[in-house]
Design goal:
Layout: H1 13-17, H2 21-35, H3 41-65, H4 75-78, H5 82-97, H6 118-121, H7 146-164, H8 180-196, H9 198-203, H10 206-215, H11 223-241, H12 247-256, H13 264-268, E1 271-273, E2 277-280, H14 282-305, H15 308-328, H16 335-351, H17 363-382, E3 402-408, H18 416-420, H19 428-432, H20 438-453, H21 456-468, E4 475-479, H22 480-488, H23 500-510, E5 517-522, E6 531-538, E7 542-550, H24 551-556, E8 569-573, H25 574-582
Antiparallel strand pairs: 1-2, 3-4, 3-5, 5-6, 6-7, 7-8
Length: 583
Amino acid sequence: MGFITPTPPPFEIEEWKQRPHLERIKLLAQDWALNGFGTPSFVYLLYVVKLIIYAGGGLLLISATTEGLGGVGNLGSWWTEPIVFQKAVVWTMLWEILGLGAGSLPLTLRFAPMIGGVLYWLRPGTTRLPPWPDRVPLTRGTTRGPIDVALYAGVIAWAAYLLLTDGISDPTTVAGRLDPGAVGTLLALLGLLGLRDKVPFLAARAEIYGNLMILFLFPLGNMIVAAQIVFVCIWWGAASSKLNRHFPFVVTVMISNTPWNRWRAAKRRLYRNHPEDLRPSSTGALAAHMGTVMEFTLPLVLLFSKGGTIGTIAVVGMVIFHLHILSTFPLAVPLEWNIFMIFGILFLFGHYGATPLTTLDDPLLIAIMAVTCVGIPVLGNFRPDLISFLPSMRYYAGNWATSQWLFRKDSDAEEKLDSEIVKPAPIVVEQLTKFYDREMAELLLYKGLAFRSMHSHGRALNGLLPHAVDDVEEYHVREGELIAGVVLGYNFGDGHFHNQQLLEAVQERCHFEEGELRMIAIESQPANVQRQRYRIYDAATGLVEEGWVNVADMVERQPWLDERPFPTQSVASVEAERATSSA
């Protein structure tokens, strides 16, 4: 790879363009296995600089605005103060909801501008997605108005207030603690914002930082053990969700894209028989499941060892675990989250590892944690259609809701997103043409499709293309992530951001004709069945077809499929019913 230019493909682009859609996917998937996305080195440097600003800025801000703490040079004497952990939580949540954290910069195909977040959510007229518009009063509609802007600005302002003010006194600490009343106000504003628009609420990573801030409402003596349990629930929730047939695909694709792994022979071993068989090999599956074992066992050691040599080994192990994730630069780039988790490990299990579990003694807090840290993730795994993968804690499981959007070429359908929708960013292909020629821009978008195709659910998306349109060559095929990023200002691997709800919001604005825009949406696999629900929509006429795809068929096919039709079980085909009735 170059410093500012992506790694060139191992084929002639003009010849590649003449091939059918799935053959184009095949060449790029085979290349991805050895070269990943081919990201320029400069892009990684951008992320490193951003992490330095996040970590260094947080330290400077906390030390400078909190009476009782020393300067950064005296970090060793004050980093264990409870208010430092509390402000680190607020700082990280603020960083994320501003759009500076996960889902930003070029690895999420965000080029100009490189962030969404605040550029969208402070701007009236942009698109919002209320989670329950038919059930919660005063939340209908998909256009951001003054109330939405005020709620978002209130969250930012109140988080800044918590960061910039001293804590209230507490006899057990030197520097005090955050005011529970002010924390409660921030949580209330965040909750109201979430009822009006689920996107910034989830972007704030409320399942992590919101859960931790709930602890700050209770007597300080509960905080350490309660926070330890929140961390363990995050790890265990994530590990439990990886007990599926999808996760080995995630790890092989992720390791193939790491900036530090340039050894092609090692990358080939991740697959059964590169280049013709890109299913995970036993080596790839072992790498995946070793991580899951660590995520199950080490948190238990942290929680029950209460320090000592064994506890220290577990602390080191979990720090290495998060450093490894950080070093792979996964495409959702949750890098700040991993930095925060490392700090939390050192704070909660390193310094305060010997705190007795009995210090968590507030029944109401225990009940709340049982719902938010256990109940919601369990429900989200069995009913993924009801709950986002984020509060379900299915972060790297590979079992995600996904979608692909198909824009008809001869009607310039994709360009309507720019002409009819209020947003600060143009469609991604136009962003890319500011840096590359049109051919390279289209190739890079196809690399995103190849990335998706290398996951198990990507096989199903490719297999459903003939169900959605008669000739895929007449359409631009786009990742749903790109549409969410451009229209909503945020994308993080959650298909609930770009399912039929977003399609309906886009149609309200763009008024596509029948056949101009079609969308394939696949829901996550419920924990108790081995199949996933799919739906195909036309923007103008609504549901076209729905049914099921079996996980067994997804994991046994290649990213580019083959000549055999992809097996599906259709439960409703609206187009077939129309054809029958018209005949």
